[in-house]
Specification:
The complex is a heterotrimer.
Chain A: E1 3-5, H1 15-19, E2 24-27, E3 31-34, H2 43-52, E4 58-60
Antiparallel strand pairs in A: 1-4, 2-3
Chain B: H1 3-17, E1 19-23, H2 27-38, E2 44-49, H3 64-67, E3 86-89, E4 93-97, E5 102-105, E6 110-112, E7 115-118, E8 122-124, H4 130-133, E9 138-139, H5 144-155, E10 161-164, H6 168-179, E11 184-188, H7 195-212, E12 216-219, E13 223-228, E14 234-239, E15 244-246, E16 249-252, E17 256-258, E18 270-271, E19 274-276, E20 282-284, E21 290-296, E22 301-304, E23 312-315, H8 318-332, E24 347-352, E25 355-361, E26 368-375, E27 380-387, E28 390-397, H9 403-411, E29 432-433, E30 448-450
Parallel strand pairs in B: 1-2, 1-7, 2-3, 7-21, 9-16, 10-11, 10-16, 11-12, 19-22
Antiparallel strand pairs in B: 4-5, 5-6, 8-17, 13-14, 14-15, 18-19, 20-21, 22-23, 23-30, 24-25, 25-28, 26-27, 26-29, 27-28
Chain C: H1 6-11, H2 20-26, E1 31-33, E2 39-41, H3 44-51, E3 56-57, H4 84-93, H5 104-107, H6 109-121, E4 128-130, H7 131-136, H8 138-148, H9 155-168, H10 178-207, H11 213-218, H12 229-260, H13 262-270, H14 275-285, E5 292-297, E6 301-303, E7 306-308, E8 313-316, H15 318-321, H16 356-373, E9 374-375, E10 378-379, E11 399-401, E12 404-405
Parallel strand pairs in C: 2-8
Antiparallel strand pairs in C: 1-2, 3-5, 4-11, 5-8, 6-7, 9-12, 10-11
Helix pairs in contact in C: 6-8, 6-16, 8-12, 9-10, 10-12, 12-14, 12-16, 14-16
Classes of the chains: A alpha+beta, B alpha/beta, C alpha+beta.
Chain lengths: 72, 467, 407
């Protein structure tokens, strides 16, 4: 799956880190880093993290793999 | 038919049958394409990108990717909706003919459009000496491929990494090197890291931060030359102060170059700082006349900003790409009076040395700075920038939750210095000179720049600086 | 006697089950001065603005004429300002979450699941249950005891003290009633007993380390040092009480709200994954912390066309902000799929709910298991009886008739 965090919005509440610690991490007290393309097995965790974000800064892919294929 | 009805019919017809071409397949290009479909555009949509990859996110490249936690190809951007677009990836646009409304591609093909969005962004400025730049072990960092190559070089545990330029990317890379326990030297021509973006007062704090983490930071020096061994691998750098640095990995972090060369001869107001456009994303031509068919978004756009005396603002910021793309997309498929303006308060973040640095506004627009909250010593603080008694920007170190307070003050052009907080006051709350480098003093180019009032930037340049 | 303001009416016991019509009236004046000189903030934008305003204090001791010890919650992180707040909160977070313990809450999930499953098992054979006493209360209180390291046997004791303290607090026109005065008089003794209980527990952990946060905090040797004894006790009290009260109310309200909105319950049954965004919406809809009372202006603050003079008490009404139509479309509609649900049910800014991640896991587990296993639940009484407290608003009982418990 694919995610992106709007780190301008992020205020470092770290709710995502609590709920999906394999995907989101804190570097220091406030700086968030994350795995942008986590394994699909983590989907529930990531959805929990996205729903919990107090400033709704986590964006999750709304398409599945087939739909987002690119054609030249 | 009444006039409004005719306009509505025009809009309807265009949304059904129009042809839109987006040049640039990164964040701005993707979000614009999605926004166009969201706006009800059902016509043909073509997205052209010079890289062979579908749109990916760049901020992770200098952080989690370089560190080795996230593979470079794990940065693909999430899709917000189905696009039904023609993707032309791995082929660059090489020319624009506005008379016939066609984009020329590197493979010779011509792609016709009714509306065009320019979202070609920037590329990394390469080490200027080509022979030296070609040495093995010399890198830049902008693309996914760059990040993958550099990460591989770090995996090989070089004896020392030399980073030339201590802007945000350079500083983030230095931070990663230290996290990986790789010796690193940073050479910065200005007086301190981040000095171009945040001024000398904050630069001094950034200096201490780097040195505390074991970075061999050399400020006020340039790199005169790079030297390789017999095998063509870089081995050392000669600095302008006569010293040398032995390094087997060298990263040139010299800022970016706007991708405007393909617009040569198009008659658009394209130049060093990008393509001039109005606050709705409509491109200007070289005479300052706004076009009806060509739009600009993202890093390559420069547009007048109400908060900064209507100077043309060039922003290499993530949210500028997202919101600028959405505004341009809306305006591409609507007509007056339904245009939207792009009124974004600039903002950025940078994670380095375990500290979250965030900013709103345009710090270099200010000439004074005042610490407003927290402790400089502990590197947890907020500071505001002022100009002529008004607040124009703010920066926080691990104090991001307070930033929106300052953002609101900036939006209101509130007085500077701002009223003191009720608690956690810094030791010294007197405004002092922010200490930005004089124009012409070489340092890293800040990634938000005021570029004067001329749509075509022929005469007015905020900070003319060439390497 | 002057007519009561919308705020005073909202605070009356009779309004507890449905304060929302008064909030609607209140929001016509986003920042409304009350007869006693305090200011009530009821709109989303203004409330969020003040949560990020460094001229606002959370410390009631900084108010003019403040009486030390008047507030049983004072001198813990929720009623402190930076920099002391930030230091103490970091000293506590070290034992609860990232960056030091990122996995602690996520790893509790199986245990939480077992606890709520056990409570549902215990309902087998019954045809009527009290969702509060049999489910919403025992689950979270067990979880918080395990997290903190408080013996389960002590639950009845501290539950009594907490009830006494909560019943004693009243910010409304009924505060001066003799009955309420009598309740208020009982608060200090309950607080003293609870404080002593926790002080003893810390003494015990200092001699013999054990599992849980309290022992960890008592033995901490982190970079910013250990919390002093008094702060340890004050913050342990906060965590023990806030760590389950709010969750109890959210579980009870979630069951109530879903039974009142069969369309949403049906949707949840069809798509169980909606519990994740659903719990955010349920908290927006019936906020466990309806208001907060401890803030004050340290300088004159201009906001929404009025000036809050320095020294004024500020009431933040989260329950109203979460129903503000300027921010939430159709705010009185429960919509488990509400987009951009940036509610303030856990507040925002530096005082953002410490235990929010734990609460989320508990409520998601509790509510989804409840509706998966309880057959044909029907409300017996609507509205149910409510507890007295205005801040921690929730049903005292929630009687539900059921056909049985599935496995």
């Amino acid at each position: 799956m694919r995610i992106v965090v709007d780190l301008n919005r992020c205020q470092g509440y770290a709710q995502c880190v609590f709920l999906a610690p394999e995907v989101f991490q804190l570097s220091g007290a406030e700086a968030l880093t994350y795995e942008p393309n986590p394994d699909d097995a983590r989907r529930l965790q990531v959805q929990r993290a996205a729903a919990a974000c107090p400033v709704q800064a986590i964006l999750i892919d709304r398409l599945n793999g087939a739909e987002r294929s690119v054609t030249s | 038919m009444t006039m409004p009805a005719t306009v509505a019919e025009l809009v309807r017809t265009f949304k059904a049958n129009g042809r839109i071409v987006i040049v640039g397949a990164s964040l701005a290009g993707l979000r614009a394409a999605e926004a166009l479909r969201e706006e009800g555009f059902h016509g043909s949509l073509t997205i052209i990108g010079d890289e062979p990859y579908e749109p990916y996110d760049r901020p992770p490249l200098s952080k989690q990717v370089l560190k080795g936690w996230v593979p470079a190809d794990h940065t693909k951007l999430p899709r917000l909706r189905e696009l039904d677009a023609q993707w032309r990836l791995g082929v660059a646009a090489t020319g624009l003919d506005r008379a016939t409304r066609q984009v020329r591609l590197a493979d010779g093909e011509q792609v016709p459009y009714d509306r065009l969005l320019i979202a070609t962004g920037t590329r990394a400025r390469q080490w200027p000496n080509r022979t030296e730049a070609a040495l093995e072990g010399v890198y830049t960092l902008r693309s996914r491929d760059d990040a993958a190559r550099l990460q591989q070089a770090l995996v090989a545990r070089p004896a020392r990494v030399l980073i030339i330029g201590a802007g945000f990317i350079g500083s983030e890379m230095a931070s990663v090197c230290r996290e990986l326990d790789i010796p690193v030297t940073v050479a910065e021509r200005g007086s301190a890291p981040l000095v171009g973006a945040l001024g000398g007062v904050i630069g001094k704090i950034a200096t201490e931060m780097q040195r505390d983490h074991g970075v061999d930071l050399r400020c006020g020096v340039g790199v005169s030359s790079l030297e390789g061994d017999a095998g063509g691998h870089v081995r050392r750098a000669r600095l302008s102060d006569g010293s040398t640095v032995e390094a087997d990995v060298v990263v040139a972090s010299l800022g970016s170059i706007r991708n405007v060369e393909w617009l040569e001869g198009s008659g658009l107001a394209a130049g060093f700082w990008g393509v001039g456009c109005d606050a709705g994303g409509r491109a200007f031509d070289i005479n300052g006349v706004v076009t009806d068919t060509v739009y600009v978004a993202g890093d390559v756009a420069r547009a007048p900003h109400v908060l900064y005396e209507y100077q043309f603002l060039a922003m290499e910021h993530w949210d500028n790409a997202v919101f600028g793309a959405e505004i341009a997309a809306h305006n591409m498929v609507n007509l007056e009076p339904d245009y939207y303006p792009h009124l974004l308060l600039p903002g950025f973040w940078s994670g380095q040395f375990g500290v979250n640095i965030k900013s709103v506004g345009v710090p270099p627009f200010g000439d004074e700075i005042v610490f407003t909250q927290g402790s400089v010593k502990e590197r947890r603080f907020a500071a505001a920038y002022g100009r002529r008694g008004r607040i124009v920007a703010a920066v926080t170190f691990d104090h991001g939750r307070w930033l929106e307070y300052y953002a609101r003050l900036i939006e209101q052009s509130a007085p500077f210095p701002p009223p003191p907080p009720g608690w956690d006051r810094p030791d010294d709350m007197n405004p002092i000179p922010a200490d930005f480098p004089e124009p012409g003093v070489p340092t890293a180019i800040p990634d938000v720049v005021l570029t004067g009032h001329d749509p075509n930037e022929r005469r007015a340049e905020f900070r003319p600086r060439r390497r | 006697m002057a007519e009561e303001t919308a705020w005073q009416q909202a605070l009356r016991k009779a309004s507890r089950a449905n304060p929302y019509p008064f909030y609607e009236e209140l929001r016509k004046t986003p920042v409304a001065r009350q007869p006693d000189g305090s200011y009530v903030v009821s709109t989303y934008r203004e409330l969020v603005q003040l949560l990020h305003d460094p001229r606002v204090s959370s410390d009631p001791r900084k108010r003019p004429g403040a009486i030390p010890g008047a507030d049983p919650l004072e001198a813990n992180i929720i009623e402190m300002d930076p920099p002391e707040h930030d230091v103490d909160r970091r000293r506590m977070t070290r034992h609860f979450g990232p960056p030091e313990r990122p996995h602690m809450i996520a790893d509790l999930e199986p245990k939480i699941r077992r606890i709520f499953a056990g409570l549902l098992d215990d309902m087998k054979g019954k045809t009527r249950i009290d969702v509060v006493d049999e489910f919403a209360f025992p689950g979270p209180v067990t979880v918080i005891c395990k997290v903190l390291g408080v013996p389960l046997e002590s639950i009845p004791r501290f539950h009594g003290w907490i009830e006494t303290a909560l019943d004693g607090l009243d910010f409304g026109p009924e505060a001066s009633d003799p009955e309420q005065q009598r309740r208020l008089a009982a608060v200090p003794a309950a607080v003293v007993e609870m404080r002593q209980f926790l002080a003893d527990l810390f003494d015990q952990y200092r001699k013999q380390p054990g599992p849980g946060m309290l022992s960890g905090m008592a033995h901490d040797n982190g970079p910013e040092g250990r919390l002093p004894q008094e702060s340890l006790v004050n913050n342990a009290m906060l965590m023990l009480f806030a760590g389950h009260e709010t969750t109890v109310n959210l579980i009870a309200h979630s069951v109530l709200s879903l039974l009142r909105h069969p369309d949403q319950l049906e949707k949840l049954r069809r798509r169980p994954e909606l519990i994740v965004p659903g719990v955010e919406e349920l908290l927006r809809f019936e906020s466990s912390v309806q208001l907060w009372h401890s803030r004050s202006a340290l300088e004159d603050i201009e906001i929404a066309g009025t000036t809050i003079p320095a020294g004024s008490t500020i009431f933040l009404c989260y329950g109203s902000a979460n129903r503000d139509p300027e921010r939430f479309e159709n705010p009185d509609k429960l919509d488990l799929e509400r987009p951009n649900n940036e509610h303030v049910g856990y507040s925002q800014g530096i005082h953002y709910c410490f235990g929010a991640p734990l609460a989320r896991l508990e409520v998601q587990t509790a509510v989804s298991e409840f509706f998966r296993r309880v057959e044909n639940p029907r409300l017996v009484e609507d509205p149910p009886p409510y507890r007295h407290n205005q801040i921690f608003r929730g049903p005292r009982h929630l009687w539900v008739d059921i056909d049985g418990i599935r496995d």
